[in-house]
# Entry
Amino acid sequence: MALTVLSEHEAGAYSPNVLAFYGDCVYELLVRREVVLRGNTNAGRLHDLAVEQVRASYQSKAVDVIEPMLTEREADILRRGRNAGGISVPKSAKPSEYRRATALETLFGYLSLSGQQERIETLFAAICEALPV
# Structure
């Protein structure tokens, strides 16, 4: 089965919350791949490593890393994600960090739906390099 790729315009037409919903999965898969490739260890340890990188506080810092690298269109998608309404902030996160984490997930969702895997890899590599766990 071939993956459906949307145009940038079509992907950008999705609501930020839908892009974040999808982007959460995209980002989580990247993180899980990264921790597995670090070495063969028990699943509990892999889970602990992954949880560190998917926390709102970590993802908020990741936004700081990639923001200077973003195109104008990507920065707009990030802003839309940060300003999205209807977000319930968990007690474990600061609202500002959670909004920035949502923005990151929105961007990754947009990039994935529009078939920009190479760009996702570039941004994720920059995050991993700047914020080792």
In short: Helices lie at 8-12, 16-37, 43-54, 56-66, 72-82, 95-113, 117-130. The first helix runs from residue 8 to 12. The mean pLDDT is 94.
